[in-house]
Design brief:
mainly alpha, 5-stranded mixed β-sheet, about 5% strand
Amino acid sequence: MKSFSLKSFSEYKIALISLISLSFVTFSGKSYENLLRGIDSNIHAKIAMTVTSGPGISPKLPIPDANSKISEPETYFNDHPFFPFWLNGWVMRILGPTAGSARLLTATASVGCVLLTLTLGTILHSRIFGFTSALFLLFARDMILTGATVSLDPLMMFFILLSFILWLKRKWTWVGLIVGFGLWIKTPVVLLVFPTAFLVALIQGQLQQDFKQIVRTSLISLGLGSFVWVLTGIIGGWPLVQDYWIRQVWGTAVGGRHSASSFGASGTAIEPWALIRMIRSGFLPSTPFLIVGCFKVIWQRLRIPLGKSPPKHEAALISGVAIAIMAVAITPMKFRFDYYFNPVFPFLALLSSYSLIDVVKAVEKNFYAVFSSLVPPVLAFLLCTPTQLGPEAFVALKRFMPFIQSYGNCDHDILLVPGGEPIGSSLDYGLVLNFYTGHQVSVEGCLTASAFIRKNKPDWILISEEHLNQCLTAAEKTKYPTQLRMGNQYLLTSLIPSQANFDLTPLERELKPSIDCHPPSYPKDRYHLGF
């Protein structure tokens, strides 16, 4: 057996290990310092625990009522196939259901996307081209934000990239199987490889040769992909399947399932600049390199006579076709967020690499060596300093929740008076509180807050400084003598006897374990968020 030595490691292998390490730290973040971010992360983590709360390993799915309607919050579950939630739920249960374990699957899939982009670029151009493309993807702003949340997009992108690699290697049957499994994850966007392969073959004059394979593998993927809905119908009832395809898929693309003003989505008018807007902000800081790369490809193409293929430009052709298909498919949708375009990020990264390929190729070995030498101090800085790697939100809630968890019980209610939240909406705050404390959260405006307090006598009140003075009477404030403050937010309660020794600044505290009001479906450790 050959003994291990550092000499057996080439510069590329060391750089590859450094890339994997940097990617995983970037996407996983310091989980113990962060709450689950925003609406989707909390809903997805809660659903993951709910889907795995049944007996054995069988998924627990919501059962529609007689009118085939799914009541909230389980409607959110039916926005996507159950499988990724079921898989994520078991990861959380095996490792301990915390914010860190909830985000692990997304982070791992994001690292996989970086490595698959490297592989795709290597196949289409060269190893250094693939490595540069992987770096552009890793440093894209929205890729980092998405990878550090509980999101289905990186897992869907993983299957898309793997299907492209298998297509280029002419593993047609495997393409059908991988795309079929990809349909178990989120949306039909995972079928992207088939229209791309069709148009590329048409442009390259190979359509007659590839057409039968494209049709055959498409049928394989659709057959395998439909099996998840057969399982859904058997477990949760066929109205659940009907609800998904009519409300979610058809409603998103054609009907406009929610009002744009409430959910921040684009309106009903077609916005041809939606993709450009996403690239301008979400792909930073790589956007300038993308522009240079595109101009370089166009300029080189114009200088070559028609009928002749430019050297090493297949990456540009495939990327351009894939991006165009995504733009045509998603732009006309009546309900659309800009992050629906996220699967184009790897292809944008490939195009960006054209801007630097001549430079990095000239210093290829030195490039790997410099990158490898820079990664360790960067990792040390990220891991050993207070720098937040994951997206931070709800700073006040992170300080308040240990007190609710330690001094409350499952019969206590929380009143949230919305307004003045530094980040996010009242819906964000309500979901975070519900997920981490298990308590019932009521949301009342300033005009109705006093009447609600007199009638229901909530045990905890979360309110901004402005609303504390405007919405509550002096008598009502007297009933909640302990008033903890963080920024412009206050937590009011009568359950804590004294606040003299409380410090809201530290990230960790010596407090009792958090309350677990719903053991089958909620995490047991909602404050100490590490693995």
